[in-house]
Amino acid sequence: MANQLPHLDQIFAALADPTRRAIVMRLCAGEASVGELAGPFDMALPSFMKHIHVLETSGLVQSEKSGRVRTCRLSADALVGAEDWFQQQRAVWEARLDRFEAYVMKLKKEKERAAAKRPSKTTKRKGS
Question: Which of 121, 21, 111 has the alpha carbon at shortest distance from 74?
């Protein structure tokens, strides 16, 4: 997994930008030309192409040019490494939370035992 960390860094960096996340979400519906992808965004095409380049560098998007049209498609396989990383993190945190829950339950039982051993305040003492 350690050899995948630079690739994960690229994926997370690419997805850190809301414009690039929107592009990825749009490409989940199917391939599209750069012009179609750029339509909803209020930016110049060269600026938009920088976003496409970041997505291509991370491996999330592939594009090909046919004549004057560049078509982009999602490379879902690039997300497998990120998904694996998330699953590993989930397993780590679930184990930690399970241990924490066991510790809290142990403390609760100890408190209940200690409370059961104490005389109640309503019990009268001899000689009172």
Answer: 21
